[in-house]
Design goal:
With 315 residues, this protein is of the alpha/beta class.
Length: 315
């Protein structure tokens, strides 16, 4: 991260979320200074209402060491990290939490409690991850999916990955959602599966199997985000050169893209997991405080969009 630059895109997201009611959020195993700092600051600016779930003695010791006051935050005792994940998920199932947040435990521990059919919080939708990238010099946030959960997604998986990303972009109040299905090239090649799947996804959107956005693909990264590159290659579409959602072929490509933007372009990467009953906030110790707050803000906006959708469905 470049400490001397402004982060207008994340600041806009945080400001939008602060206009909403804070969402009750179960934080699984917040036993280090980073997790607790995120919880305390997000509570202070009214993004979330944290519920700390984990070994109470460890949480209190970590708070004391970091000189953080958690006395006003509810604390649910748990024996260890696996138990904390299970209890945090149980709070969601009981309707006491509208979001789930990773503390100082491994992502696979948390997701291991999320995915079981009987005790977890899965839905019919495939679970997927989105990065919301604040890239210096780029006018709008970029949503990248999936770079953290689905290793080698099938075409059916990608339908849900795309729809999850579209729903996120709408919750983030994108005026128009423009989805680029990425590959190494912009022409369909029978030897490159990602180009065929990109074409299929675009046709699915034409037939209403994916809704709420403009889709185009296959597109290479340059002609997805650069109007100049798209013009040079004579690609004419409302998405080419203007994409604000990038769907990658697989986890390896997505991970490399996101980390390249972070470490070579100085971008920040807020993270959210979608497709479960509630948004799941994944943060890293390497994230700046603003990035962690942006992840909380994104979860708040997603939760608000879900409440609005549920209300309209009832009406």
């Amino acid at each position: 991260m470049q400490p001397d630059r402004r982060h207008e895109k994340y600041e806009r997201v945080v400001a939008a979320a602060r206009a909403l009611a804070a969402i009750p959020t179960a934080i699984a195993h917040p036993c280090d200074d980073v997790s607790l700092q995120s919880a305390v600051e997000a509570a202070r600016i009214k993004l979330i209402e944290p519920i700390l779930v984990g070994p109470s003695a460890k949480i209190k010791a970590a708070a004391q060491k970091a000189e953080l006051d958690i006395s006003a935050l509810p604390l649910v005792d748990a024996a260890h990290s696996h138990d904390a994940a299970a209890r945090a998920v149980a709070l969601v199932r009981e309707g006491r939490a509208e979001a789930l947040m990773k503390g100082s435990l491994h992502t696979d521990e948390l997701m291991g409690a999320v995915v079981p059919r009987e005790t977890g919080i899965r839905t019919a939708r495939r679970i997927s991850h989105c990065f919301i990238m604040d890239v210096p010099g780029h006018p709008d946030p970029l949503v990248i999916s999936d770079a953290a959960v689905n290793i080698s997604p099938t075409l059916d998986d990608k339908v849900d990955i795309v729809q999850n990303a579209i729903d996120l972009a709408k919750a983030l109040q994108f005026a128009e959602v423009r989805v680029a299905i990425l590959s190494a090239m912009e022409t369909i090649n029978s030897k490159v599966l990602s180009t065929i799947e990109a074409a299929a996804l675009c046709k699915m959107a034409d037939r209403g199997q994916i809704v709420g956005a403009l889709l185009d693909g296959p597109l290479a990264l340059d002609n997805a985000i650069s109007l100049e590159a798209a013009t040079i290659k004579h690609i004419v579409s409302p998405v080419a050169g203007r994409a604000n959602v990038l769907i990658v072929p697989d986890l390896e490509a997505g991970n490399m893209l996101a980390k390249s933007l972070s470490f070579l372009a100085g971008a920040d990467a807020a993270g959210i997991v979608l497709g479960a009953r509630v948004p799941i906030i994944l943060t890293s110790r390497a994230d700046s405080l603003l990035t962690r707050l942006a992840s909380c803000a994104v979860a708040s906006l997603v939760a608000a969009a879900r409440r609005a959708s549920a209300t309209s469905a009832i009406i």
